[in-house]
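@channel sequence for tomorrow's demo:
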Amino acid sequence: MPDVPPRAALEAASRLAIDALLGGAPALLALADRLVAAGHEVALVGGSVRDAILRPQAPGDLDLATSARPDEVLAALAGWADATWDVGIAFGTVGARRDGQQYEITTYRADAYDRATRKPEVTYGDSLLEDLRRRDFTINAMAVTLPDRTLVDPFDGLVDLAALRLRTPATPEESFADDPLRMMRAARFAAQLQVSVAPEVRAAMTAMAERITMVSAERVRDELSKLLLADRPRPGIELLVESGLADHVLPELPALRLEIDEHHRHKDVYEHSLIVLEQAIELERAHEPTSGADLVLRLAALLHDIGKPRTRRFERGGRVSFHHHEVVGAKLARKRLAALRYPNAVVDDVAMLVELHLRFHGYGSGEWTDAAVRRYVRDAQEQLVRLHKLTRADCTTRNARKAAALRRTYDDLERRIGELAAAEELAAIRPDLDGNAIMAVLGIAPGREVGEAYRWLLERRLDEGPLGPERAEAELRAWWAQRTTAD
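structure tokens (generated this afternoon):
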């Protein structure tokens, strides 16, 4: 935990940061003037204040809290906003945009929760203090009143922010009972902000982990994705596992802790998976088109070995095998991500990568034929760049000589792919004859036999490379004659 300066020094630094933010936001101050002139209170709140103090930079969306009711907010926005929207108005939130900057303006809240269903009964509050007390963590329970720019910090969020510590304004039990998703959010902030979770918060998360099952899969998914897309997601993942939240959200992950990796180079497969994730993140920017934070790659890296618990076998000599764990893992990944309501495209891409992550190791120490290279590219399809990164990240051996050999072998594979791609258009491997040409050559109508002939030609294309129309036609006729005679 970092050394925390005296509060007076923290407040002085925070005033400078807030002044810098507001100095570049004249439109925000104009909106505040409108609300105050109409007799309302207004304050900058939540993550907007936290981020301005923690890492001053161009602001993201700005969050405001106000005593004005939603209809009064809409009246103040008239003539000021370029656009407004009211999709959150049932919860007291009005959205607005001005000069490309987005704002969310929410009426003070004093919600009461049904703790059996976790559905809030939206009631408006009368004070900023009451509004701040119902927020998730102290670092998000700070406000700056406008236009006078007074810092309001009733729960010592400023000190917690300086200490990189996560606490709740109310007791953590009360906070998590109000909204169990806050437990996931704690793990997300542990990753995003690299904060430590206060012991009482961690204890409450552990005791109340099962309550996360009350939250919709979509909300859980969104928090998990934000966690994984952090620069350093490992602390958040470890908190999910250690608190027991992962047992309900992603149970395949904690199950890996008991599975000893077959190479005996890591504490367990769980630790190996975290290392692979970290190494995949380092490789994200290595190649286009996935040159930024890549959710599909990160999910695949984290989940690539989840089939091992189901496939573990003890062999003679003390060896442990996990035959076909990539196939089983792909099925498990597909089922879990679908349950979390990830889009079908994400589910399909992650499952494909998990299934293919061992394909490279199936070709020995580099004796790749042209046919094998073509099939590798064909099977990876649009996920080839991600598969390159995942395969490289999956090398976590501590044996420097072995690691270097694997890198050289994969370097050679990528070189071979590049050479064949330039010569044969590998990105779009197709037979030399399409369906219409096949029907014309063989004199057959559309049907199952056309598909069978197409697949046969595709296998010839993968084995031999481009045949050319004349040779393809001759070989197709010979195959058809042999097939017909056999029938």
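heads up for whoever presents: The first strand starts at residue 42 and ends at 45.
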